[in-house]
Amino acid sequence: MNGVNHWNITNQEWERNAFCPVALKSLNHPENENLLYEIKQYTKLKDNTFFVRCFGISQNPETKAYIMVMEYIPYGSLDKYDITNMIWKDRIKALLDISNGLEQLHECNLTHQDFHPGNLLFSIQKNLLITDLGLCGAVNEKSNVKYRVVPYMASELLFDKQPYTAKADIYSFGMIMYFITTGNQPFANYDDYYSLAKEVKYNNFRPKIKDLEISESYIKLIKKCWASNPDDRPTINDIKEEIRLYYQHPKLYGIEKAEQYLKANEIQKYPQVFYRSKIFNSKETIENNYSLELKQVQSWSNYDLDKL
């Protein structure tokens, strides 16, 4: 792509940007309305450096499907990255990037509604950018979405049609923080996601955090993010400021000690799984007593939210 930059008065011609690679997101006709909605959300965040940029839209001349022209991000998503290769300071920097982006989203009175490592991409500068705003909506908006990633889904939304609030994004952030901290997906060793949803909702079941030499305040922050009562969760502004302190004062908050501990001790890791949002009919799960298999390469962990 080499878009127009400005008009050169001297040469009386348009100056263009240098060629740059782009990513194209194409949707079929039934989803065109969703695509236009997603573009609208990107427009609200067009000047934000913590989101994948959307340059505009085009249309396939043959299929007539709309195409979103996106910034090309070469290094892939966070969920495919081996966290064990990251030093602790880089992990804290990643959390700071994510919290900055989510703060900007919430300041626009928007919620992401599908917040998980698969929607966080590494830029050329190795910053983490938020993408996939297709489910993004206004704070407290009643959501008609039928698919999300259950392990990252706020407990109050399971089995109840509750409005999606900013605090639901905070719950997801807590799970992302757990993933970056441990290198394991939350509930990676759990293969029955309908039962998991019940445990999370009714028994306050959460991933275990152990074998980490890091400050108690860091662990408390994770646990506050995934509190059962949304009112007990911190705001993204509070989270960002606390993570900033971890980044600026690594010795004070035990980050340096945690780095030394990781080098000396290998934390148990489960086979990596990659969660993606997808419709799953939980009614069939109940009627047929069917459990999802957790596969090493790819694991779908979603349910039809109309039935949950």
Automatic annotation (TrEMBL):
GO molecular function: ATP binding; protein kinase activity
A cellular component term, taken from the record's GO annotations: cytoplasm
Gene3D superfamilies registered for this protein in UniProt: Transferase(Phosphotransferase) domain 1
SUPFAM superfamilies: Protein kinase-like (PK-like)
Keyword Kinase listed: yes
Biological process, per Gene Ontology: signal transduction
Sorted UniProt keywords: Kinase, Transferase
Pfam families assigned to the protein according to its UniProt record, in alphabetical order: Pkinase (PF00069)
Domain Protein kinase residue range list: 1-252
PROSITE patterns assigned: PROTEIN_KINASE_DOM (PS50011)
Domain of life assignment: Eukaryota
Listed name of the protein: Kinase-like domain-containing protein
Native source species: Rhizophagus clarus
